[in-house]
Structure formats: structure tokens, C-alpha cells
């Protein structure tokens, strides 16, 4: 037989479900009637996660599947008795993925987190639903007034009654004192878990949160009651989180009487954050880095710093950005992620603090329907975030405002025709009226901004432009139909991937997208995909119907994975 004939023969055998070239790895014993090679049966066997899948070969060389009986592995070339076992996949429940310590430490069932989306998009309702479903979720406190954060935290404490939740602490360099005020609130309410985001460097506020209440237990072990899940996309930032609190900031906290000298000494035994979420290409603040290269980089950093500091509790890395399908979640776990974090797809869920208009826009998004635009919190620095492009002109208008900010030193320097165009199309009111509203806002939230603006015309211009950037997301959350063209909707390409995966399923409908339904489908699907890959890597040729997993109702998932 020629080489080409051999290839053709092997191909036809594989298409017929034959595996002549697959070596036996053991023997299977059980009821032969349980064996099947029907496409639908094979898919059902793989998706029944609580039972192993055995692949055997009959005397005609056909591969057959079952989750019944038992198997014996053999290292010898021959199999002593029973049908030849050529592959198997062990049982794998969704809770078995990732790092068990992450779930134990945070009191959750599944290694899955709903990340914070600012302005309350990650709402109290979303956090409650996720928590009650066995997942971790972070309340989107970023961008909210302190009184609104307080109200949200108080509701979570009261309504979750001891169940796990997280609160976002976002770095706010342009709002002096806000971080400290939020930390004061969290410490007063005994909130022991935060998600820290947008930090380029550590601040005294976040360090104070981490070391507050640090002590030694009866066995002389250092105990830090407050935990941080940090988000980072750069190695230098991740290094700060995985290192002990900076001595300089600890000394400042000791000098101000906020911690003791003994507590500062104990802090050298703990990392700033035991858990670090690697933020790849995502909605909102992002460096648009691919997770396939970023996650391995951060896991290598984790191992180096764990080896350097010998922490009693090992460091962990989670993956965020692009997590929107079973395959992407499975890939993250395959790269060593202790947990996965979702974002854009949660905004599309019915419990989010967004509007029905936005949920419909997100349900229609494709992967290319995203664009970078100026970020309100770091506008002057030129920092950008990723937003939805389809159906809104926010990104183009935001970029125009930043270009004007770079070009001129004061509102008065902008040419009259340009100013009139801004007032007509972007602000829909005079710039003087915008400044009046801006001044009123900062007089309540951060009066120093008004003082600085009166002294610095360029800063005044920045605050006026930030009025539009800030309200654009609030118009979206409120569903202000008259401002839909100006909606700022934080969104990454993951949204398009999710829409493609859910096409022609019940999850294609915005009203069916509950945060638990979405999360259960992704974490369950990740386990199924892992089993599919496990079998294929052993040379098993799976029928098309068994090579993927489609969205399922929660009741079905529970019957297959509980």
C-alpha cells in the first residue's frame, strides 16, 4: 500500500468512527449494551460531568463510548481481558476547575468571579444573584458618590447575611481623599474583601486597608483579615501587588497612628494581594494585551515571587478579559488560572445597573464593534478605555475633546465656530452652563477641584470636557433615549464572542441573560470543553455533535454537574 493510500484509508476509518491506529491503554469491563457510537449519545456522555467517559474499540475497529462499567489501565503492550480501552476522561465537575483554595478562602462554590463595572453597573442586585448562585461578584463602587457606596454596602451586608461578596476600590488620583473615605467606610462596615482596580502604584489608602487589623493568632501565625483581589495588566504593577506592603507607606501609617510598629513588622510576611486578576483585552480600562501571552507571564511572576518571599498562603493568578465562551474559560484554566473573571457579558445581564436599551445594543454587538476612547478618570493623562462602537458616537466625540484639550490651554482659546459646534452637538448647552453644573458637582464631591480650576484655565477645560465623559455612561445606565448617540458603554470583544456562541439559543434574548444562567453555562461549558480536549489529545476522533457545548437551561446543567 502506498503512503497516499494509507492516509486515505486512515481518514476514511476516522470518519467512520474507527481508530485502528490508537493503541490500547487498558481494558474495560461492563455491560456491552451501554456502549454506543451514536453522535448524540457521545455528546451526552461527555456532558454528564459526574461520570467518567470510557472509549473502547470493538473487534471491527470501531470506537464506542460509555460512562458505565469500570476500566483497568495497563502499561503492557497487550490487554489481558475485556474490550480494549483506548482513552478515558475522568469525571470533572465545574467546582473542580481552577484552584480549590480560591473557593475555600472566599466562601464560594465555583472559581468564577463577576468583576466590578463602575457606576453601579455591577449592581447590588447582580452581586446578590451571583453570591446566592455560588459565585463571587464585586459591587461596582467606582464612580459613585460615597453616600451611594454606603447605601449599596449596607444593602449587601443586610440582604446577603454573611454570604460572600466583594466591593471595588478604584484608584482615583483626581479626587483627593475619596479613596481614604471609601476605605474608612469599608473598615467601619467590616468588609473584608475588595477588588482593587486602575492602580499604577500603591497608595496609603489601599495599604491601610490591607494591614488594618493584622495580628498573630494563637499559633503565632500572621493573620491579615482584609483580602485584596488586585487587577493588573503590567508586570511592574503586578509585582507591587505580589510583594509585601512598601516600607515607606507603612512608616507613614505608623507615624500617623493608623497602625502600630508591630503591625508594620508583621506586614512583611504578607503580599499586598494574594489574588491577582490578569486583565487582558477587555471592556473599560485595558492595555488590550492577549491573554494567551499575558497569563503565562503573570503565572511565571507569581512563582518567582512566591519563591522569593515564601508566603504562608500561596499566590494565585486569575484571568479576565475575553472570558465569554466555554472555550475561552477552559483555555484560561488550562493556562493555570486559579479563577476566571467576566465583565462585559455581565453588563448585558438583567440584574446589571445598565438599561434595557444598552442590553439590546450589547446583544447585537460583534467582536469588531469596539473602539478605544478617553477615560474620564484619567482624561488629562491620555488614558483610554474600550467601549462599544456600534450605535454610538461617544468614542469619536471623546477623542475630539481630548484633541482640543491637547491643542489649547483654555476654553477661551478654542475657535468660536468650534465652540459653537461643541455646544450644539456634544454638550447641547452652552459651555458656561456646563461649567456651572460641573462646579456644583465638585463643590459637593471635591471642592479642591473648583479652587484649582479657578486658578488654572486648562484644568477648568478638562473638568468641562470630563462632564461629557462622565455623564455619557450615566445616560446609558439610565436609558436616556434622547442621548443614545452619546452612550458610553464599556465593552470588549468578549461581548461579540458571547453573542456568537449564544446565537439561536435562549441566551440570545437579552431578557434571558441572568448573571447566574450565564455563569453556570460558562463554568459548566468549560468543564465539558476540558473533557473534549482530554479525549481528543488521546487520539479520539469525536463526532461533530460532541466537539462543543451549547447553552443549556440551569436545571439541565444542575442535573449533569451536581
Short note summarizing the structure:
The chain is α/β, with parallel strands linked by helices and 562 residues long.
Characterize the structure shown.
- The structure is a single chain.
- With 562 residues, this protein is α/β, with parallel strands linked by helices.
- Mean pLDDT is 93; it is low at 1-20.
- It has helices at 3-15, 39-47, 100-106, 124-132, 146-160, 178-188, 204-211, 235-242, 247-255, 261-266, 291-309, 326-334, 344-347, 356-363, 394-407, 416-427, 431-445, 447-455, 457-478, 494-502, 515-536, 554-561; strands at residues 26-29, 53-57, 63-66, 70-73, 84-89, 112-114, 136-139, 166-170, 193-197, 215-216, 222-223, 227-232, 275-279, 284-285, 316-320, 340-342, 370-374, 384-388.
- It has an eight-stranded parallel beta barrel with strand order 6-7-8-9-12-13-15-16, surrounded by five helices. A five-stranded antiparallel sheet has the order 3-2-5-1-4. The chain has a three-stranded antiparallel sheet with strand order 14-18-17.
- α6 (178-188) links the parallel β8 and β9 (193-197).
- α4 (124-132) runs parallel beside α5 (146-160), α6 (178-188) packs parallel to α7 (204-211) and α12 (326-334) crosses α21 (515-536).
- The two termini are 51 Å apart.
- It is built from 22 helices and 18 strands.
- 44% of the residues lie in helices and 13% in strands.
Amino acid at each position: 500500500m502506498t503512503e497516499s493510500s494509507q492516509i486515505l484509508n486512515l481518514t476514511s476509518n476516522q470518519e467512520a468512527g474507527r481508530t485502528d491506529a490508537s493503541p490500547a491503554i487498558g481494558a474495560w469491563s461492563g455491560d456491552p449494551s451501554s456502549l454506543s457510537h451514536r453522535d448524540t449519545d457521545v455528546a451526552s456522555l461527555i456532558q454528564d460531568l459526574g461520570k467518567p467517559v470510557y472509549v473502547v474499540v470493538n473487534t471491527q475497529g470501531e470506537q464506542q463510548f460509555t460512562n458505565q462499567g469500570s476500566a483497568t489501565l495497563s502499561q503492557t503492550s497487550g490487554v489481558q481481558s475485556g474490550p480494549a480501552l483506548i482513552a478515558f476522561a475522568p469525571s470533572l465537575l465545574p467546582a473542580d476547575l481552577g484552584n480549590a483554595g480560591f473557593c475555600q478562602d472566599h466562601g464560594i462554590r465555583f472559581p468564577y468571579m463577576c468583576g466590578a463595572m463602575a457606576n453601579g453597573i455591577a449592581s447590588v442586585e447582580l452581586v446578590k444573584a451571583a453570591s446566592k448562585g455560588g459565585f463571587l461578584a464585586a459591587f461596582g463602587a467606582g464612580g459613585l458618590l460615597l453616600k451611594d457606596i454606603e447605601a449599596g454596602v449596607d444593602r449587601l451586608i443586610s440582604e446577603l447575611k454573611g454570604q460572600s461578596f466583594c466591593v471595588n476600590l478604584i484608584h482615583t488620583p483626581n479626587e483627593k481623599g475619596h479613596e481614604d473615605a471609601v476605605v474608612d467606610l469599608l473598615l467601619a462596615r467590616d468588609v473584608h474583601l475588595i477588588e482593587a482596580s486602575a492602580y499604577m502604584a500603591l497608595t496609603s489608602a489601599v495599604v491601610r486597608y490591607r494591614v488594618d487589623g493584622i495580628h498573630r493568632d494563637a499559633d503565632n501565625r500572621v493573620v491579615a483579615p482584609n483580602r485584596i483581589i488586585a487587577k493588573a495588566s503590567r508586570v511592574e504593577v503586578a509585582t507591587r501587588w505580589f510583594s509585601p506592603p512598601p516600607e515607606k507607606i507603612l512608616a507613614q501609617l505608623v507615624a500617623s497612628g493608623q497602625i502600630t510598629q508591630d503591625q508594620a513588622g508583621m506586614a512583611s510576611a504578607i503580599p499586598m494581594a494574594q489574588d491577582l486578576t490578569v486583565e487582558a483585552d477587555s471592556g473599560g480600562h485595558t492595555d488590550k494585551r492577549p491573554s494567551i501571552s499575558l497569563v503565562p507571564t503573570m503565572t511565571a511572576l507569581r512563582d518567582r515571587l512566591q519563591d522569593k518571599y515564601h508566603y504562608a498562603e500561596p499566590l494565585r493568578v486569575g484571568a479576565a478579559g475575553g472570558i465569554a465562551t466555554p472555550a475561552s474559560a477552559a483555555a484560561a484554566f488550562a493556562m493555570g488560572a486559579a479563577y476566571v473573571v467576566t465583565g462585559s457579558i455581565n453588563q448585558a445581564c438583567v440584574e446589571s445597573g445598565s438599561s434595557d436599551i444598552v442590553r439590546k445594543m450589547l446583544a447585537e454587538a460583534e467582536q469588531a464593534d469596539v473602539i478605544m476612547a478617553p477615560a474620564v478618570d484619567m482624561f488629562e493623562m491620555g488614558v483610554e478605555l474600550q467601549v462599544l462602537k456600534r450605535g454610538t458616537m461617544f468614542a469619536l466625540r471623546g477623542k475630539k475633546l481630548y484633541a482640543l484639550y491637547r491643542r489649547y490651554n483654555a476654553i477661551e482659546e478654542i475657535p468660536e465656530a468650534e465652540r459653537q459646534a461643541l455646544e450644539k452637538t456634544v454638550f447641547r448647552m452652552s459651555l458656561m452652563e456646563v461649567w456651572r453644573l460641573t462646579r456644583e458637582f465638585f463643590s459637593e464631591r471635591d471642592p479642591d477641584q473648583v479652587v484649582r480650576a479657578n486658578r488654572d484655565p486648562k484644568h477648568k477645560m478638562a473638568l468641562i470636557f470630563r462632564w461629557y465623559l462622565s455623564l455619557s455612561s450615566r445616560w446609558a445606565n439610565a436609558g436616556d433615549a434622547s442621548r443614545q448617540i452619546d452612550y458610553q458603554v464599556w465593552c470588549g470583544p468578549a461581548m461579540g464572542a458571547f453573542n456568537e456562541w449564544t446565537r439561536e439559543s435562549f441566551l440570545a434574548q437579552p431578557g434571558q441573560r441572568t448573571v447566574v444562567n450565564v455563569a453556570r453555562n460558562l463554568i459548566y461549558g468549560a468543564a465539558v470543553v476540558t473533557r473534549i480536549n482530554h479525549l481528543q489529545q488521546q487520539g479520539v476522533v469525536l463526532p461533530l455533535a460532541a466537539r462543543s457545548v451549547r447553552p443549556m437551561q440551569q436545571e439541565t446543567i444542575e442535573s449533569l454537574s451536581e
